[in-house]
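Entry:
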Amino acid sequence: MNESHSLTNCETCSARTALRGLFELSKKTSRWFDANAAGFAPLLLRLLIAYEFLEAGLEKVSGENWFADLTFPFPFNLLPPDLSWELSMGLEIVAPIALILGFATRFFSFALIILTIVAIAVVHWPTEWRTVAQLWQGYAITDQGYGNYKLPLMYLFMLTSLLFSGSGRLSLDAWLALKTH
């Protein structure tokens, strides 16, 4: 070791020690979250997505059926508009309740994914676009003539996360799994 190098005054050594300490703190924090709070992430996601879909379902209960003015893709175009309205309204009311409880989360997430894809295709996707830049203009909350698929796309990502991960520890699904083993 160089005689002029002092471990107590070395900035490089101090930085390494600080980085090691940060890394250890990060590992401890991560272990604490894994042990104590991991069940909250899917719960919070379930509550948020449930609120959004329940709100849409309740609006349909008190609203007027506007599905007759839409062109649905196959095979959904085979259903009469009144039946489509009732089915989507029913799913938008039943699925959020199930998600809040964490019951059949993967099933209801998948069903809402299908509903959301149809909604994007029929209502939220831009009617015309020639370039990716024009399509990108539809990535918005409100439709300014270019579509508005931002929120439904976010819902798709949230629902896909629930489909892949399940409902988490704070759910009826987890409770039922414990009871059956």
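The chain is about 65% helix and 0% strand.
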